[in-house]
Write a structure and sequence with these properties.
alpha/beta, 15 helices, Rossmann fold, 6-stranded parallel sheet, 4-stranded parallel sheet, single chain
Length: 410
Amino acid sequence: MFGWEFPPHILGGLGTASYGLTKGMSLQQDMEITFVIPKPWGDEDKSFLRIIGANQVPVVFKDLDYNYVMQRTPNADDYFHFRNGIRYDFSRIGTNDLGCINFSGRYPENLLEEISNYEAVASVIAHSENFDVIHSHDWLTYPAGIFAKKILGKPLVIHVHATDYDRSRGQVNPDVYNIEKSGMDFCDHIITVSNLTRQTVIEKYHISPDKVTTVHNAVEPLDFVNELHKQERKDKVVTFLGRITMQKGPEYFVEVASCVLANTKGVRFVMAGSGDMMNKMIRLAAQRGIADHFHFTGFLKGRDVYEMLAQSDVYMMPSVSEPFGISPLEAMQCGTPSIISKQSGCAEILDHAIKTDYWDINTMADYIHAIVKYPAMYKELRKNGLEEIANIKWEYAGQKVREIYEKVKF
C-alpha cells in the first residue's frame, strides 16, 4: 500500500482510514501488508503491518559502509536491500548524504514535487520487493502505484477517499484532476468510500461503473471509551471538528450558531480544528456578535479528539461535499448525537444520525434546540447511535477489499 498519512501523525481522515482499514485487513491471517508513507516519525503502530518510510529508501547510489549507514538509519539492512533495487538515474532529485530524499510528511507548497519524488521511491521499492497487489490511497500516491504496476506487472487498486471536486467545490485544479484521471484509467479497480464518491468518479472522470466499488469506511474501537465521561456543567456544547476549509462548510456552522443563540440560552459552540478559513470564521463569529459563546480550540489529535467529542452534547458536520466523514461515527461512538449533511457519504450508512441539507440553517438550528432542551431526545439518539456504531467495523470493510483483490489478481 502507498499512503500519505498514518497515525498518530495525521492531518485529516485519510490517515485515520488508512489505519483502520489496514488493521481490519490484518485480521485475515494469510495477508501481509507493507505500508509506504513519505516520512515515518517512529511512533507508528507496527504490530500488524510493516511500514516503509520513503525518506529512508535510497534513490541515488552512494558507496557507504555498513557502520556509517547504521548510525543514520533505523535499519541498515533495509537500506542496503533497497540500494540494490536502484535501476534508474534519479540524480536530478536533491538527496542527502545517504542518497535518500527528504520528505515533509505533510502537504507543503511544493506538494506536486513531493508526489513526483515519492513516485521515484516507489520504483526502487518495486524493484527490490514483490507483492501480489498494489493499493494506492488517494491521488497523492496514484503516480507511485502506476510506476510500481509498470515494474511488477501486478494489479493496481486505487482508493478514492476524495476527489478534487469535493475539495474545491467544483473549482478543480487541472494538475490534480489529471493525476486522479490517470490513476483511474491505469488501475485495475477503484474503491470509493461512498456511493456519492462513486457517482463522482463515474460521471466526472468518465469511468465504467463496472470498475468502481464502494467500500464504506468504519470506526476503530476505543479501548478507553469507558473512561470518557461528560462533565457536569450548566451550558450545553455543540461541536464542529475537522479541517476548517470550504469543503467542510464551517460558515454554515457559524450561521447555525448565530441562529440558535438568538433563541436559545445556555449553549456554547466549539470549532475544533485548523485550516485556511479559520481566521475568516473568527471574524464571522465576531460579526455575528456570538464570540462570547464561540470557542476555537485549534487542531486536536489523539485522545484529545475523543475527549472533545465526549464533552459535547451535539456534534455537527455541515459539509458541502463530504466523500465519507468519519468524525460523526467517532462522535456517536462517544455517545454524542450527530447532525450531518445529506451531502456526506456517511449519511448512506447511518440511520441514527440526523440528516439535513448543509445549507438548511434553520432546520439544523431547530434540531440543536430540540436535542439540548429535551433530554428524552438526547438519550434516545445517544442510545441508538451507540448500538449502530458497534456494528460498523473495519474488519467488514477489510473483507470487502479482500474480495476485490481476489477479482483483480492475475
